[in-house]
Predict the 3D structure of the following.
Amino acid sequence: MAGFARRKQASRLAGGPAPEPTPPAGAAPPAPPPAAAPDAGPVTAAPPPAPTLEEAQALTPADDFSRFAARNVSPEVRNLAMKQLFRDPHFNRMDGLDTYIDDYSVADPMPLATVRKLASARALLTGEAQSLAYYRHAGLRRWVRQVAAEHRPAASVVFSSTMAPYAHELLPKVPMLVDLVDVDSAKWTQYAPAHHWPMSWLYRREGRRLLAHERDMALAARRSFLVTQQEVDLFDSLAPDCRGRVEAAGNGVDAERFRPNPALPSPFAADERAIVFTGAMDYWPNVDAVQWFATEVLPRIREREPRASFWIVGRNPTPAVQALANDAVHVTGTVPQVEPYLQHAAAVAAPLRVARGIQNKILEAMAMGQPVITVSSCAEPIGATAEQGLWRCDEADCFVQGVLAWLADPARRERLGAAAREHVVQNFSWQANLDRLAAWLPTTEST
């Protein structure tokens, strides 16, 4: 290193490279490099033969498996080799994850409601109303065809527009009567302003698509029916080409089943003042009604009457309904009978801010001898007055005052309840309303 440094320094001073050191005397000159051999190109070894199925079958865990992963190995041989490898118990030890093995090996059936929702979502691609896709069922279609073939009915009677497609395909051989019940398309449109996008858009779309279907079914049917004359007038304005093809046929109530019966056991505490709402609790107008009453009305009632409680009686309560439950709000879910809850209620409320037509929950409560506080749009089709046990309230203040009045005067409530039952028995018997449908059935001579 010292010699190299001196030569480097000399090169800098002289402006040229430093001379190479002279070899010592007597040293042999360096040997010349060997001559390059002619270029014969790279030598490539022949690839080993691909292993066979017999070789894979003979593998043991102690063998070398690497050659079975080469590119020239056939898939059958490679797969067999892997099976032989994983026969080694080392690769078959169970650990804590075996707790979850059934999560992947045992099928978890999808709930029917989820299947129906997925089917209705597909309607967004096909352009039809989602309600129709939701209620489409191949098994029911086969049953309808089988019944028609075996019994050759003179006519079909359909409940609701979503069931009409099953009978529509039997036309013209089997005439069809359609009980539309309500103008469902208008109900969907009515939901839209109460929701944000995209639900507002979906509800408006459903309203348009379902109205087109209702119109088609009314034009194809021998006769169609709606629950009130108000609904008939509304449908005529929305589908004027159906004017004269739809008439009113009201709901009915089983007045023998729903009748006062003090012997029924009370589901409430002895000193409790229960305010009762009944209905399917996965139906959005019902959900909206109980949420509003529990938050806007009940607290003000309890300021004056601490014993007051709110009972939400009905199947399939949504998470939003279940979240209302507390010391003063009771969510029952499905119950064997609603009659005991109506019989022993201190008040019955139906604050349905978004609803159409006649509400059977109101008719049933009135038939049980209970007056009912409800909104004007639900009271009007029933036709009872305040003295006949049906009070109209559209604001929270009115509901508060009405309920408190009944809680303070049970005798008055009982008198109003008797008048309510009389009104229902006289005006909402099933026989009177079913006679309207029977009048449009074909006679024996015409079939």
